[in-house]
Amino acid sequence: MQHSVKMAAVDLDFYYGRFKALESINLEIPERRVTALIGPSGCGKSTFLRCLNRMNDLIAGTRTEGAVLLDGVKVNVPSLDVVELRRKVGMVFQKPNPFPKSIFENVAYGLRVGGVTDRNYISSQVEKSLIAAGLFVEVKDRLHDSALGLSGGQQQRLCIARAVALEPEVLLMDEPASALDPIA
């Protein structure tokens, strides 16, 4: 069965200053499939993932050459709205990065930033996402407590729920299980 290409890297190079971290990456990522990048530590897997949703743009002195495509459209162009791109291409990092907000607000954050105002929809998405991340049962009675009080593994599952709540077209996960508790 043939699957259409959702994302692609075409002759992608990435630089930290003068250091070329990625060279001539060509990769097609099929729609509705899990694609895993496997390689030794320091080989550029995380850097490549961050190129896909332009998180590397936040690092001073970096540059990208070549193309990153989402549904055939080049996304590494200055005119593209990176907030909209990151809504479509979510990311969960290796280390949890909860916001200094309540558990509920951590998951609802992206929805609110995206302009969602319907409280019932937000509540439904928060619950659905926490269930999907395997965290709801543990936090359902303390959704308004600080997310910073959660264990490391719970914080990681919270970050997964936050990413899933936006229903992204692509979900990038950079070693997401490395910080999980054994119960997860």
From TrEMBL:
Keywords: ATP-binding, Nucleotide-binding, Phosphate transport, Transport
SUPFAM superfamilies in UniProt: P-loop containing nucleoside triphosphate hydrolases
Gene Ontology biological process: phosphate ion transmembrane transport
Domain ABC transporter: 7-183
GO cellular component, one term: membrane
GTP-binding is among the record's keywords: no
A single MF term (Gene Ontology): ATP binding
One Pfam family of this chain: ABC_tran
Name recorded for this polypeptide: ABC-type phosphate transport system, ATPase component
Gene source species: Solidesulfovibrio magneticus str. Maddingley MBC34
